[in-house]
Here is the input.
Amino acid sequence: MNTEEYERMYHLEDSYWWYVGRHCLVESILRSRFGAPNPLSISERTILDVGCGTGAMSARLTKWGRVVSADFSPLALHFTQRRGLTSMVRADAMKLPLATGQFDVLIAMDMLEHLPDDAAALSEFYRVLKPGGTMIATVPAYPHLWSDHDVAAMHFRRYLRPELLSRVRAAGFRVEKISHTMTTLYPIVALQRRLSARKPIKSHYSHTSIPLFPAPVNFGLKKLLAVENSVARRVNLPFGVTLLTIAKKAG
Here is the structure.
């Protein structure tokens, strides 16, 4: 992403419904596995946030353990540092400059689609996790939803569920959960993408699709996603804009 996109993300990540819904989903998964955040466990649990972007997820993760924020972009790490985070590393996710078996939890939110070789990245995720460590990852779903948004975000692909499942397992992980999320919003997004598909996808830079809403609408969407997240933790939703996977390293 370019400077303008990082600026937008930095200013929106703490309040915009899409980002907040993602972050709350991860925290709800951590809460279901580790209980409420406990200051005594922070020094014991190590967390790697791969593709940390502008650092909002990393900042929230500090309640759950010692966080290392990793991103290939120096600009992303600059914004992450502005949030007061200090444990950062510039890293290619396909070849992480980190020790084997170092982390208890690895978070990869909407970043595998940015990589030319996602299989190599998944193998690296497996390597740097401790035995028994957990990966929580999300990716955009359905190639038929491809649009100018994906072009602007510099995506290589969108995923089908069997494809993601196969690649995660091929890296060595035991998949505990794979589910669609953003299910209630799928019809709206699918319609919007179908209408935009009638226009040629631009080869030059275009903006990511982050429509701004009045505060009450933004608040309502956050509440909607909170309800959906509580359902997605318990059952695997059959369709949605995003795919979530939770997988463990053997041990």
Notes: Residues 3-248 form a domain with the Rossmann fold fold (CATH 3.40.50.150). Confidence is low (pLDDT under 50) at residues 201-205. The first strand starts at residue 46 and ends at 50. The CA atoms of residues 72 and 91 lie 5 Å apart.
